[in-house]
Automatic annotation (TrEMBL), chain B:
Membrane-topology annotation of the record: Multi-pass membrane protein
Annotated localization: Cell membrane
Top-level taxonomic group: Bacteria
Family: Belongs to the binding-protein-dependent transport system permease family.
Keywords: Cell membrane, Membrane, Transmembrane, Transmembrane helix, Transport
GO CC, alphabetical: plasma membrane
Family matches, as PANTHER family: ABC TRANSPORTER PERMEASE PROTEIN
Species of origin: Azospirillum lipoferum
PROSITE patterns on file: ABC_TM1
Domain ABC transmembrane type-1: 72-287
InterPro entries noted in UniProt: ABC_transporter_permease, MetI-like, MetI-like_sf
Name of the protein this chain belongs to: Sugar ABC transporter permease
Gene Ontology biological-process entries: transmembrane transport
Residue intervals passing through the bilayer: 12-36, 75-97, 109-129, 158-183, 204-229, 264-287
TrEMBL record, chains C, E:
Domain of life of the organism encoding this protein: Bacteria
Entry keyword annotation includes ATP-binding: yes
Domain ABC transporter: 4-234
PROSITE patterns xrefs: ABC_TRANSPORTER_1 (PS00211), ABC_TRANSPORTER_2 (PS50893)
One Pfam family recorded for the sequence: ABC_tran
Protein name: sn-glycerol-3-phosphate ABC transporter ATP-binding protein UgpC
GO biological process: carbohydrate transport
From TrEMBL, chain D:
Gene3D superfamilies named among the record's database cross-references: MetI-like (1.10.3720.10)
Family recorded in the similarity comment: Belongs to the binding-protein-dependent transport system permease family.
CDD domains xref list: TM_PBP2 (cd06261)
Biological process according to GO: transmembrane transport
Region described as Disordered: spans on this chain: 1-23
Transmembrane region(s): 37-58, 109-129, 141-161, 173-196, 217-239, 278-302
Protein name (record): Carbohydrate ABC transporter permease
CC terms in the record's Gene Ontology section: plasma membrane
Signal peptide start-end: none
Keywords for this protein: Membrane, Transmembrane, Transmembrane helix, Transport
Length: 394, 296, 365, 312, 365
C-alpha cells in the first residue's frame, strides 16, 4: 500500500533489532518501511538532517523524537495530530501522566511513545561486592564509602568515561537523590534561580567531586559499553548508567541478582528518571503515506509490539498496561519503581536526554557538570557558572 | 562585414557568459547565504529561523558564553601550534625527502595518506593511541619506564594539544607536499654556488633555501589556516569537545549551538565572527596575490 | 707554473661516458675557454674542477695539489653560473659578502671588500637591491662581484653571458676581458659561443662529445683548425669546406673545384709542405676557405665566377651565398658589391686557406 | 690578489689522490654517511609515527570483538579473523537495513564521479577564461570565487536546504552533486587559474590565428596540456567529496546516503555497544578509494601542486 | 598595391600609452622588420595587425580592407610566435594541419599541404614527433610550416629566432630569407636583433617607446640613421658617436675632436650640404663613425693617433677600443694589426661619416 520513511538515530545492534520489531509490525499491516538512520552525537546529527529536510519542505513520514523535539516541531505546525488514534487506542489512560507534556501539544497527541528507559541505575559486579562484604548502598555517602573500600582492594570503584553525557547521568541522579525530586523539578525543570544558586546545589557538586574520586585515570574517551565491560570482567565494581547497559550483561549470559546487581541510585526518596522514545508523524500530502503513518502509530502503541520491543531493547514499555512476566528482574524492579514513583511524585524526566528543561538550558547543566567533573573548579564556582549560564541562555 | 563584427561582439561576450553561471552559483551559495547568516545573527531565532530584529543581542549572548571564550582561546592556541608544527615538520620531511633518498615515493605516500582518510574513524584510533591506559603511555610503561606520563587527553589543560597532534598528523604531509614541490623548483646552481663559498648543507638550507620557499610558505600558511579554522570532525571524533569543554573550537561551537542547543541566533553570530576572522586573513592575501599576478 | 692541470680525467654517469680522458693544462693568468656544442661535457668538466661532481678517473691539480677529494670550498676557486645563482632573498651586498661571512671575515673588512668590488663593477648604487630588481647585465655583474671578493686562485665561469641579449652580451664581454686584464687571475670559461671564445681566451679548448679536439691560442684555432669539426664550429659564418682535388705542378700547389654549369675553377698559390703536397697530389681534398677570404675580383687571373643565390647585407658587410664544388658557400664582402641572381667573379686569399683530408677530416699540415 | 695567493695554506697531500672514485649522485666528502644515516633514521621514525594509527586500525579490524572488549586495544591480534571486513562490506546494519557498506559505496561513487567531473570541468573552463580571456573585473570574479573556499559549511546548511527545495532537488543525489559542485568550483577554479597562468598566451593566440574559437581552443589546445592539474583537481575533489559527511547527511536520506553517512551509522553509536573491529574495517573500506587515488596519483599531486597552487 | 597600411594607430593599456600614432605602409612582397628594444611596443603592434589586441585608435588595412573589427581568422594572415606556440599535445603533422582542420579542409588535401610544407622545410622525418621531442631549430621550422600551409596574404613573425643559439640563428635567418624569396609573400617581422633586421628586411621600421623613429631600407637606416638613437641601435659594435666641433673652411668641412693627452684631431673631407655646413659652422656636433670606417694608417695626413685600450680578436676581425673625444670608441680592424697598450695611427673613411645635432640628436642632412 503506502510507504513510510522513518528517520531515527538507532544504529547500535540491539537498537536495530528492537526497531525491527516495529518495522515488521508495520510491514505486516501491508506498508513499506523506508529506513533513514542517522546516528551519532546523541541525536544532534539526525536533528541537523531533519532540520535540513524540513527546511527543504521534504519531511520524512515519521521521526523518532527525544525530549522536547516533538513539541517544538508541533509549535512550528508541521506535525500531524494523532488524536483520533489516541482516542481509539485509549492512549491517555495507558500512559503515565508525566509523559504527556512530551507527547501532546495543546491537548492533541503528536507522538506515540514506544518505550521507557530508566537512567538512574547502578550496575554492580556481585562477586566483587560479595568478596568485599559490601551491601548495596542506601545513600550516596554510603556508596562513596563502599567505593573507597573497593579502591583499597585494588578495584576501580566506578567505571565510566569522560564524555559529558556520562557525567550528566550521574549529575542528574545526584540532583534528585541528594535533595529530593522536588529540588530536581525546581532546578532542572523550572530553572528557579533561587534553587539553582542554593546551598543544596553546592552539595550536589561536592558529591560529584567525591564521585570523581572513584573513577580511574584512564577514563578519557571511554565508551559506556567499555565501562560496562569493566564491570562485567571484574576490573570495576559499579557503573551508573541507563538500563541500556543491561544488554551487555545479558549478552554475556549473566543473570540479574545472581551475577550482577542492578539497583537505583541510592536516595531517601527513590526517583525514576525516565526517557522515552516516541514516534511523531509529519504533515504530508500523500494519502498513502498518511495511511502508513496511522499504521505506524497503531503499531507503536500495540502492547504486544511494545513488549517485544522492550524485551530486546532493555527498557520497559511506555504503556503501563503491558504484562511484566517475561521481563527480567531488573525490568521488574523498574516496573515496580515506576508504579511507586508515579504515585509518590518520583517520576522525573532525565535531563541528560532532554526530558527536563529545553535544550539550551539543559546544555548549560551539561557544560557545568562536565567541566566541573574533569577540572578543578570549586563547587561554588560551578554553582555561579550554572546560574550565569542559565541566565545567559534565557 | 557587419555579421563578422557581430560575431566578434559575441566572441567578446562569450567568456563572460560562460563564467556567469559559476559566478551566479557562488553569489548565491556563498554570498547570499553569508548574508542570510548575518540576518539570522540579529534575530531571536532559536529552533527555526524567525525574522525579527533584536540588534546585537545574540552577539552579547555569544560573548557571555564561557564555552565560546574557550573556543576562541582554543582556536588561537590550536591554530598557532598547528601551523607552527605542521610547517616545521612538513619542511623537515620535505628537506629530508629532497636528499635523493630511496623509496621517496613510498615515504611521500605515507606522509600524505592521513589527508585521504576521514577523521570519523581515524579519531578512534587516535583516542586509543593517546589514552594513557591503552596507548603510548601504557606501551612505554610496560617497557619498563614506569613513571612515564602521557595523559594529555585526560587533562583539560592539555587536551587541546592532543588535538594539535592529531591535526598535525593529518595535515603536515600536505605541507610537506607543497614544500617539496617548492624545493624541486629551486635552481640547483644556487646550492652549488653556496657550496663553493664554503657553506655547509644545514647553513645553505637555513640561510638560502628556506627563505626562497617564501611563496610555498605563503600557500601553506593560508591553506593550513583554512584547515585550522574549519577543523570540525577532527575535534568531534577525538574528544567531542571534551574533557569538559576543553577542546571546543568555534566550528564545533557553532554546530552545537545551532543543532544541539537550539540557539540558532547564537550559532549564526558565531558564524559571523568566524567569517570575519577568515576574511581578515584571506582578503589581504587575495589582494596581494592578485596584484602581484597583474604585475607579473 | 701550471695553475690548473687536468690529467686524463674521465667522467661517466652509469654506463654513459661523458668525458673521455680529457687532459688540459694552463698557466697562471691564462684565460681558458672550453668551447663546444650543447651536451659535449663542458659544464661537467667545470663542475669537476669546482668539486661539484665526482671524478670518475684521472686527476685534477690546482697549483700542483691534487684536488680530487677536496671539497669545493677548499679548492680556492670562485664560480659564476649561467643563471648567476644569486641568492634571491638577499640583497646584492649580502650576496657578495655571504661567502666571507661564512668564513668569518670581520664586518669591517667585509664592507671594504664589497665596496671595492662594487666600485670596480660599478654596482655601488645597487648594493641594497634584491636580485629580482636587477636587469640581466646587472645580475651578471653581481655574480662576478661575488666571485671577485673571494680572491681565488681560479675563476670558473659557466656560460655567464648566454642569458643576456645580443647588445648587452657584447658589452659584458668587453667587461670580462677588462677584468681579466686588471686582476690577472686564471680563468676557466665555458661557452658554446665561438665569438666569446675568440675574443676572451688566451687558450681555447674545443670539445666535442667529451673529447678535446684542439687546445690552442684562439687565432691559431681560427686560422689552423685541427679538423673540419673545429673549422666549422669556430667562426661565423662558418668556414666553407669545399670538396676539390689537389694538383701539384712543381712547386705550385693548386686545388681544382667543380663549379655548377661552368668549367672547374682552379685555386692556385696554396702553401703546403712539400711532403704533404706529394702525399695528396692528384687526390681529393677538402678545401677550407673562410668567408672573409673571398673578395670581388676585377678580372685578375685565378678568380672564380659564381652565380650569387642570396645576398644578406649585415650593415658593415654583405654575405653572399652561392654554390661551389656542390656545396653552399658563403662569402663576406663589402656592402653593395654584389646582387642576388647575378654572376660575379671572386678572388680568394690563399694565404689562409687550409686543406683537410676527406677521410680523417683532419688538417693537412 | 698576489697576497691572497701567497697566504694560501701550503698544499697538503690529498687523501685518496689518484684513486678512481665510484660514480655517485653528488660528491662524497667526509662523514657524509653519518648525514645519510640521520636522514634515513628520521624519515623512517617519522613514517612509523605516521603509520601508527593505521596500524591500530588494521590490527583492530582483524580482531574478534571479544578480544577488544577484553582489553586488547593496541597490539597484534591473537585470534586473526577477516569477519569484520566481510560484515562491514555486506552485512552490517545501517539502521534496519542490513546491507553493509556495499550499496552506499555505490551511492558515493554515483555522487563523487559526476561531482568531480563537473567541478573539475567547470573549474577548468573558469580558469581558462580568467587567464586567457580576461575581461574587466576578472580579478574580482576570481576573488569572489576564491573566498568561497573558506566558507564554514556548518553555517549554510539551512539556506542551502531551502534553495535545493526551491529548485526541486531536495533530498536527491543530483542535489548533493550540485552542492559539491558549487563549493568545489571555488577550489578547482583556483587550481586551474594558477596553472593556466603559466601556459604561454601565445598558444591561445596561435590557435586564434589558426581560426579556432573559444571552445575549440579550450578543448583541443588547453585541456590536453593540463593533465597534471586535472589530476590534482580530481584528487582534491575526490578526497573532499568522498569524505564529506556534513552535506551528505543534510541533503540526502536513507538509501541515497553516501558512504560516510553509512559509516557514521556503523561507528557513531551512543547508547549502543560499539563494534570496534567492524568500525575499523568499515572505515578502511570507506577509505580505500581515496587511499588508492593518493597512492596511484600521488606523484602527480606533488608535481601538479608546483604548477597549480604554489606559485605565489 | 599596399598590402598592409597602418594608419595613425594608437594603443593604450589604461592610462599607459604603448603606441603613439604609428603609421606604416608596405607593398605586396615587402619584408618589413619592426626593430626596437624590449618593451617598445613591437609585439603589441604585431598583435594588433593579427587581431589579437584591440585597436585604441586609427585604422589597420589589409589589402585595402579595414580589419579593425575583424577576427584573426578572417584577416588572411599567419603568425609565427617567439615561443613557436606549438600545440604541445599534437604531433608535428597535427600541429601543421590544425588550422586547415578547423576550416574544414578535406583530409587528402590537408595531407598534401602538410607534405609540401614539410618537404620545403625538410621536416618530413619529424612529422610524427611531438614538439617536446624537437630541437629549437626544428620547432622553429614546424612553426613556419604551420604558417606556410595557410597560404596567407600576410606573414607575421614575432622574434622567431631569439630562442635559438647563435649558430642556428644564422642558419635559420638564411632559411627565412630564402623562404621569402621563394614564396614572395608579404612579411612583417618583429625583432630586437639589428643583424636580423639588416639581413632580412626590405623595409625596416625602427621603434622606440611606441614611436617609429625611421622607416627605410636597411642600408639607408645603416648608413644614414635618422637620429643618434637609430645610429646606436643599428650595427654591432655600435656606431661611435663622438662630440666634436664643425669647422668650415670654404668648401671644406672638417670636424675637430679632442684627443686625450694629444693635440685635437681633425677629420676633414666631410660631405655636407652647403646649407647645413653654414648653419653648424663653428658649432658643436656629434660625429658618427661606424667601427669599420677606421683603418690603420701608414702616416698619411688626416689621421688620428690613439692609445689602444683593449683588443678583441673575433677571428675575421679585431676590435680595438680606445678613447676619443671623451668617449669610448671601437674600431673594427683586420686581425693582428694593433696591440693593446700601444699608440696607433688610424684613418677614417669620411664618405660614410654622419653628423648629428647635439641638441635634437637628429641627423644633420
Ligand atoms: N646527472 C647526470 N646524469 C646523467 N647524465 C648527465 C648528468 N648530467 C649531465 N649529463 C649528460 O652529460 C652530458 C654533458 O652534460 P653537460 O651539462 O656537461 O653539457 P654542456 O656541454 O655543459 O652543455 P650545455 O652547453 O647545454 O650546458 C650531456 O649529454 C648530459 O645529458
Ligand atoms: N596587457 C597589458 N597591460 C598593460 N601593459 C602591457 C600589456 N601588454 C603589454 N604591455 C606593455 O606595453 C609595452 C609594449 O609591450 P610589447 O610586448 O609590445 O613590447 P615588445 O616591443 O614586444 O618587447 P619585447 O621585445 O620584450 O617582446 C610594454 O611596456 C608592456 O609592459
Ligand atoms: Mg652547460
Ligand atoms: Mg615582444
Amino acid at each position: 500500500q503506502g510507504a513510510i520513511e522513518v528517520m531515527h538515530h538507532w544504529v547500535a545492534e540491539s537498537e536495530i533489532e528492537a526497531l525491527s520489531v516495529i518495522r515488521k509490525g508495520v510491514e505486516a499491516k501491508g506498508f513499506q518501511w523506508k529506513d533513514s538512520a542517522v546516528g551519532g552525537m546523541s541525536g544532534a546529527n539526525v536533528q541537523q538532517a531533519l532540520r535540513a529536510r524540513l527546511t527543504a519542505g521534504d519531511p520524512p513520514g515519521a521521526m523518532q523524537f527525544l525530549g522536547w523535539e516533538g513539541v517544538q516541531w508541533a509549535e512550528q505546525n508541521v506535525v500531524r495530530d494523532l488524536n483520533d488514534q489516541a482516542k481509539a487506542g485509549g492512549w491517555r489512560n495507558a500512559l503515565p501522566p508525566q509523559l504527556l507534556p512530551f507527547l501532546t501539544a495543546q491537548e492533541t497527541f503528536i507522538a506515540a511513545p514506544i518505550n521507557m528507559h530508566r537512567q538512574n541505575w547502578v550496575w554492580a559486579n556481585k562477586k566483587i561486592f560479595d568478596d568485599a562484604g559490601i551491601p548495596i548502598p542506601k545513600s550516596w555517602p554510603e556508596l562513596i564509602q563502599a567505593g573507597r573500600k573497593l579502591k583499597e582492594r585494588g578495584v576501580i570503584p566506578l567505571a565510566m568515561g569522560d564524555e559529558s553525557w556520562q557525567v550528566e547521568v550521574i549529575f542528574d541522579a545526584l540532583l534528585a537523590d541528594l535533595n529530593g525530586p522536588e529540588f530536581y523539578r525546581k532546578t532542572a525543570i523550572d530553572l528557579d534561580p533561587k534553587a539553582l544558586g542554593s546551598r543544596e546545589m553546592v552539595k550536589v557538586f561536592d558529591m560529584l567531586r567525591e564521585v570523581r574520586g572513584l573513577v580511574d585515570a584512564n577514563f578519557v574517551g571511554r565508551d559506556w559499553a567499555v565501562a560496562t565491560g569493566m564491570v562485567i570482567n571484574g576490573q570495576a565494581a559499579m557503573q551508573v548508567m541507563g538500563d541500556w547497559a543491561k544488554g551487555e550483561f545479558l549478552a554475556k549470559g549473566l543473570k540479574p541478582n545472581k551475577d550482577f546487581y542492578c539497583f537505583p541510585t541510592p536516595a531517601p526518596v527513590t526517583s525514576f528518571q525516565y526517557l522515552i522514545d516516541s514516534f511523531g508523524m509529519f504533515k504530508v500530502k500523500d494519502p498513502a503515506v498518511q495511511k502508513a503513518q496511522i499504521a505506524l502509530a497503531e503499531t507503536v502503541m500495540d502492547p504486544a509490539i511494545q513488549k517485544r520491543f522492550n524485551l530486546i531493547k532493555g527498557s520497559i514499555p511506555a504503556r503501563t498496561d503491558v504484562p511484566v512476566d517475561e521481563f527480567d528482574d531488573c525490568a521488574k524492579l523498574a516496573f515496580k519503581d515506576r508504579a511507586e514513583a508515579i504515585a509518590k511524585g518520583g517520576m522525573i524526566g532525565a535531563m541528560t536526554h532532554g526530558f527536563a528543561s529545553r535544550p539550551e538550558f539543559a546544555a548549560v547543566f551539561g557544560d557545568v557538570a562536565g567541566q566541573f567533573f574533569v577540572g578543578t573548579m570549586s563547587s561554588d564556582e560551578a554553582v555561579k557558572m550554572l546560574v550565569q549560564g542559565i541566565e545567559n541562555a534565557r | 562585414m557587419n555579421a563578422s563584427r557581430q560575431s566578434s561582439r559575441l566572441a567578446a561576450w562569450l567568456p563572460r557568459l560562460v563564467v556567469a553561471p559559476s559566478l551566479l552559483i557562488v553569489l548565491v551559495t556563498v554570498y547570499l547565504f553569508i548574508a542570510w547568516t548575518g540576518v539570522i545573527s540579529v534575530t531571536s531565532s532559536k529552533f527555526v529561523p524567525v525574522y525579527d530584529f533584536v540588534g546585537l543581542e545574540q552577539f552579547a549572548r555569544l560573548w557571555a558564553t564561557p564555552r565560546w571564550h574557550i573556543a576562541v582561546e582554543n582556536l588561537f592556541i590550536f591554530s598557532t601550534l598547528f601551523l607552527a608544527i605542521s610547517i616545521g615538520l612538513g619542511l623537515l620531511m620535505a628537506i629530508l625527502l629532497d636528499q635523493h633518498v630511496r623509496a621517496e615515493g613510498f615515504l611521500r605516500a605515507v606522509y600524505l595518506y592521513p589527508m585521504a582518510l576521514s577523521f570519523i574513524v581515524t579519531g578512534t584510533a587516535w583516542k586509543w593511541v593517546l589514552n594513557p591506559g591503552l596507548g603510548i603511555q601504557k606501551v612505554v610503561n610496560d617497557l619498563g619506564w614506569a613513571t612515564f606520563r602521557f595523559d594529555w587527553i585526560a587533562d583539560p589543560q592539555m587536551a587541546i594539544y592532543t588535538v594539535v597532534i592529531a591535526g598535525v598528523w593529518q595535515s603536515s604531509g600536505f605541507a610537506m607536499a607543497i614544500f617539496l614541490a617548492g624545493l624541486r623548483g629551486i635552481d640547483n646552481s644556487v646550492i652549488k654556488a653556496a657550496q663553493i663559498e664554503g657553506a655547509s648543507l644545514p647553513l645553505i638550507y637555513r640561510q638560502i633555501i628556506i627563505p626562497m620557499l617564501r611563496p610555498a610558505m605563503l600557500s601553506v600558511v593560508v591553506l593550513l589556516s583554512y584547515i585550522a579554522i574549519k577543523s570540525f570532525d577532527l575535534v568531534l571524533a577525538l574528544t567531542n569537545g571534551g574533557p569538559g569543554a576543553a577542546t571546543e573550537l568555534p566550528s564545533t561551537f557553532m554546530f552545537s549551538a545551532t543543532f544541539r542547543r537550539n540557539q540558532m541566533g547564537v550559532g549564526a553570530a558565531s558564524a559571523v565572527m568566524m567569517l570575519m576572522t577568515v576574511a581578515a586573513i584571506i582578503v589581504p592575501y587575495l589582494y596581494s596575490e592578485l596584484r602581484e599576478r597583474n604585475n607579473g | 707554473m701550471s695553475t690548473l692541470e687536468i690529467d686524463r680525467v674521465r667522467k661517466s654517469y652509469g654506463s654513459l661516458e661523458v668525458l673521455k680522458e680529457v687532459s688540459i693544462s694552463i698557466d697562471t693568468g691564462d684565460f681558458l675557454v672550453l668551447l663546444g656544442p650543447s651536451g659535449c661535457g663542458k659544464s661537467t668538466l667545470l663542475n669537476m674542477i669546482a668539486g661539484l661532481e665526482t671524478i670518475s678517473g684521472g686527476e685534477i691539480r690546482i697549483a700542483g695539489r691534487v684536488v680530487n677529494d677536496l671539497s669545493p670550498k677548499d679548492r680556492d676557486i670562485a664560480m659564476v653560473f649561467q643563471s648567476y645563482a644569486l641568492y634571491p632573498t638577499m640583497t646584492v651586498s649580502q650576496n657578495i659578502q655571504f661567502g666571507m661571512k661564512i668564513r668569518g671575515v670581520p664586518k669591517a673588512e667585509r664592507a671594504k671588500a664589497v665596496q671595492a668590488a662594487a666600485d670596480m663593477l660599478q654596482i655601488t648604487h645597487l648594493l641594497e637591491r634584491k636580485p629580482s630588481q636587477l636587469s640581466g647585465g646587472q645580475r651578471q655583474r653581481v655574480a662576478m662581484g661575488r666571485a671577485i671578493v673571494r680572491q681565488p686562485r681560479l675563476f670558473l665561469f659557466d656560460e655567464p653571458l648566454s642569458n643576456l641579449d645580443a647588445k648587452l652580451r657584447v658589452d659584458m664581454r668587453t667587461e670580462i676581458k677588462r677584468l681579466h686584464a686588471r686582476l690577472g687571475t686564471t680563468i676557466v670559461y665555458v661557452t658554446h659561443d665561438q665569438i666569446e671564445a675568440m675574443t676572451l681566451a688566451t687558450r681555447v679548448a674545443v670539445m666535442k662529445g667529451g673529447v678535446v679536439q684542439q687546445l690552442d691560442e684562439p687565432q691559431t684555432v681560427y686560422d689552423r683548425p685541427a679538423n673540419v669539426y673545429v673549422a666549422r664550429f669556430v667562426g661565423s659564418p662558418s668556414m666553407n669546406v669545399i670538396p676539390g682535388t689537389l694538383r701539384v705542378e712543381g712547386d705550385k700547389v693548386m686545388a681544382v673545384i667543380e663549379v655548377q654549369n661552368r668549367p672547374p675553377a682552379t685555386i692556385s698559390g696554396i702553401g703546403l709542405s712539400r711532403d704533404a703536397a706529394a702525399r695528396y697530389a692528384g687526390r681529393p681534398v677538402l678545401v677550407g676557405i673562410r668567408p672573409e677570404l673571398f673578395s670581388v675580383a676585377n678580372g685578375q687571373p685565378g678568380t672564380i665566377t659564381v652565380d650569387i643565390d642570396v645576398v644578406e647585407p649585415t650593415g658593415p658587410d654583405t654575405l653572399a651565398v652561392f654554390q661551389l664544388g656542390g656545396v653552399e658557400v658563403t662569402a663576406r664582402l663589402p656592402p653593395k658589391q654584389v646582387e642576388a641572381g647575378t654572376a660575379t667573379m671572386l678572388a680568394v686569399d690563399t694565404s689562409k686557406l687550409v686543406l683537410f683530408d676527406p677521410a680523417t677530416e683532419n688538417l693537412i699540415k | 690578489m698576489a697576497e691572497a695567493i701567497s697566504t694560501l695554506p701550503s698544499p697538503s697531500p690529498a687523501p685518496g689522490s689518484g684513486r678512481v672514485t665510484k660514480t655517485d649522485e653528488t660528491p662524497r666528502y667526509n662523514r657524509a654517511w653519518i648525514g645519510r644515516l640521520f636522514i634515513y633514521a628520521t624519515l623512517i621514525a617519522m613514517a612509523a609515527a605516521y603509520l601508527m594509527p593505521l596500524w591500530v586500525m588494521v590490527t583492530t579490524s582483524l580482531k574478534p570483538l571479544e578480544e577488544i572488549y577484553g582489553g586488547s586495544f593496541i597490539g597484534f591480534p591473537q585470534n586473526f579473523t577477516l569477519d569484520a571486513w566481510r560484515v562491514a562490506w555486506s552485512q552490517a546494519c545501517i539502521g534496519t537495513e542490513c546491507t553493509g557498506l556495499k550499496p552506499y559505496f555505490v551511492n558515493s561513487l554515483l555522487i563523487v564521479i559526476p561531482a568531480v567531473v563537473l567541478s573539475t570541468g567547470i573549474g577548468a573552463i573558469n580558469g581558462y577564461i580568467l587567464t586567457k580571456w580576461r575581461f574587466p573585473g576578472a580579478n574580482l570574479v576570481f576573488g569572489l570565487l576564491l573566498f568561497g573556499c573558506f566558507l564554514p559549511y556548518q553555517a549554510i546548511l539551512i539556506p542551502m536546504a531551502r534553495t535545493l527545495s526551491l529548485i526541486g532537488l531536495a533530498g536527491s543525489i543530483p542535489g548533493l552533486i550540485l552542492v559539491h559542485v558549487s563549493y568545489g568550483i571555488c577550489f578547482t577554479t583556483l587550481f586551474f587559474r594558477n596553472y593556466f597562468v603559466t601556459l604561454p598566451d601565445d598558444l591561445t593566440k596561435a590557435a586564434l590565428v589558426d581560426g579556432a574559437g573559444f571552445f575549440r581552443i579550450f578543448w583541443s589546445i588547453i585541456l590536453p596540456t593540463s593533465i597534471p592539474i586535472i589530476v590534482v583537481s580530481c584528487i582534491w575533489q575526490f578526497t573532499q567529496i568522498w569524505n564529506d559527511f556534513l552535506f551528505g547527511v543534510s541533503f540526502t536520506s536513507g538509501a541515497h546516503s553516501p558512504i560516510t553517512v553509512a559509516l557514521n551509522n556503523i561507528v557513531n553509536v551512543t547508547t549502543g555497544r560499539k563494534q570496534y573491529n567492524i568500525d575499523m574495517a568499515a572505515a578502511m573500506i570507506a577509505g580505500i578509494p581515496t587511499l588508492l587515488v593518493y597512492i596511484v596519483a600521488g606523484r602527480y599531486f606533488v608535481r601538479g601542486l608546483t604548477a597549480g597552487a604554489v606559485k605565489g
